[in-house]
Predict the 3D structure of the following.
Amino acid sequence: MDWHLECSDCGTNYPPDGLPTVCPACNRPLLVRYPIRTHQMTDRAEVRRRHGMWRYRTFLPLQLDEEPITLGEGDTPLLAVPRLASALNLGDLWVKDEAANPTSAFKARGLSAAITRAVRGGATAFTLPTAGNAGVAASAYAARAGLPVRVFAPRTTPRTILSQIVAFGGDLVLLDGHIGDCGKASRAWAAESGAFDLSTLREPYRIEGKKTLGLEIAMQMGWQLPAAIIYPTGGGTGLIGMWKAFVELKAAGWLTDEMPRMFSVQSTGCAPIVRAWEAGAETAEPWADPWTIASGLRVPGPLGDKLMLRILRETGGGAVAVPDETMAELATFATRQEGIDFSPEGGASVAAALELKRQGLLPEEGRIVIFNTGAGWLYRTPEDLLGPA
Ligand SMILES: *Cc1c(COP(=O)(O)O)cnc(C)c1O
């Protein structure tokens, strides 16, 4: 394999053999490093001719003679939303609609990459903790690979999301507590059964799949970058992945724009990154008693805290927390304004754009890209809208 792994914290290098996890020296996440010449051998026209997120395979952990485990993830629309923008006075606002992925959330990207590599590395069964959508994607991609997956999820996860895990054949285990508690149970099950743990940032390849969010935005903008990005942050791989994408594209000479200002949005009910940002800290303390309707944001102690805070600082971005009521209201409003099925996490991005504008932190000029990370229907039942049958 022509890439290697590097610790995001202590910088130690490792070969990518077998089933890599975190840095054996310091337990921090490992990142994939590619030789720049690999990117330079491909031209941008070739990327245009291919389809889905694996069109960027020159930036992904896949050898030329390998095929990915795929359901056609990626190639989601980047949509101008002029009606929403003018109703809220938000300028040149665009939405990256990740609901268009298989399993209806951006988690498909990460799990396609992680399961592709884990199968090559010899995994025969999977396990993971989830706040919801990662469990659906893992169940679908494990099915695609013909392998079993056990999914540990909080009992309070939206019922429709839980039902999708079961629909795709995941072995669902419900626990009292949050994703951190599910993580402990998943690691214990991995140790007991030999199943490979796909937890965010506990293996280096999910983030490579999420990186394609950034590669895709750059291509969709004609190899330019937006002025600002607002991302609903849970474990943080979307944010870290996009940043990694832009750094790699610049190093390869595929784009010359400055980095976008990267902003993280969380719920006031679980905002470890926002609290650390406001305190000027380098790492985040775990959030006690986390709760939010945006289940993807209910991550009280993300492993990528240090890396995320560095990215927010280095790009001149920041972090804001918004209340659940505001994100829910704006999700409903934005859905009806534009015909895009906004999840609460997507509503949080809209709310954050308003809040950042109010604080004078949004760039006056240039494109603002916000994320609808998953589909709204995953968070409701027909009865929520229609009343009892
Ligand atoms: C997982 C998830 C998030 C959080 O993404 P991270 O990359 O883990 O920060 C946001 N929105 C939705 C819908 C999710 O499923």
The radius of gyration is 19 Å.
